[in-house]
Amino acid sequence: MTELNFPCPVAISQLRLPDNRERQSARAIKWLLDRRGGPILLVTPNKKFDDVAIKALAARWGTTHVTWKGLSSAKFSGHRVIYAWPDRQRLNDLWGTEADALVVIEWGTSETAEWVEDANPVLLLPGHSVQPREVASEAAGEALLNGVDDVLKSVEAWAAGYDSGLKWNEEDKLKADMMNRPERWADVTVEQVRAKCRELGMRPNDIDTIAGLLQRRKNGRRFNVRSSYRDFRFN
Asked: pLDDT for 140-198, tens place per residue?
């Protein structure tokens, strides 16, 4: 998989009836232990949970157990990582991680749907697994109307220049263009913009930001833009 810049094997264990949480966790653990790589890093929301399989892994010699608080994905480097029950934001923050292998234990599909679409992981299900879809031959999507393609390419180039993604002034330029050139954005959907941003390889957090701005405009919201960019328009 390449869309989210994962250079390592990636999987997600999903709950399916008549499954239960401990079997779901056990699938994730087995998959990770079968991968080659560095020591195990277990990530949970906090140190209190009832999952027996996860407790056993936490007690296993050589496992490092950390919580969400203060966690940086830089800590994943050189580890086989099992990430329990992350929310959407924490999944977004996995962009560019240098783990040796990564498996996510899903809590609910509402939190993971976008990540699964983008990250294209192995799906670990009761009794079987689903391998990642073939992406190498996928053709580029159609160009978006009214120069939106060029706008998004410019935004992607700006964001790629920073480790943290889009800066406030680049967001202000987008807001200003959406306000000053409403006809440019009228005929594109939020889903089309999100898909194009994925195609361009943008960070998940930046994709959410851009899609969120467009959705707000389509809902009739106006933006407060700093005076230096209030009249800005993309060519």
From this structure: 567 888 899 999 999 888 887 766 778 889 999 999 999 999 999 999 999 999 889 98
pLDDT at 94 over 50: yes
Listed residue (198, 202, 207) closest to 117, CA to CA: 198
Place of tokens 């009836």: 17
Beta bridge partners of 103: 11, 82
Task: Give the residue from 93, 100, 116, 90 showing the smallest Cα distance to 14.
Answer: 116
pTM above 0.85, yes or no: no
Q: How far apart are CA 145 and CA 181, in angstroms?
A: 13
Burial track 92-110 (b if 16+ CB lie within 10 A, e otherwise): bbbbebebbbbbbbbbeee
Q: Which residues pair with 66 in a beta bridge?
A: 43
In the chain, which residue ranges form alpha helices assigned H by DSSP?
Answer: 21-33, 52-59, 88-92, 109-119, 148-160, 168-180, 182-185, 190-199, 204-218
The first and second tokens of residue 232, run together, are 């800005």
> What residue type is assigned to position 207 of the chain?
I
Tokens of 105: 């234990």
Task: Share the mean pLDDT of the chain.
Answer: 89
DSSP letters, 75-144, are GGTTSEEEEES--HHHHHTTTT---SEEEEE-S-HHHHHHHHHHH-PEEEETTEEEPPPP-TTPPPPPPP
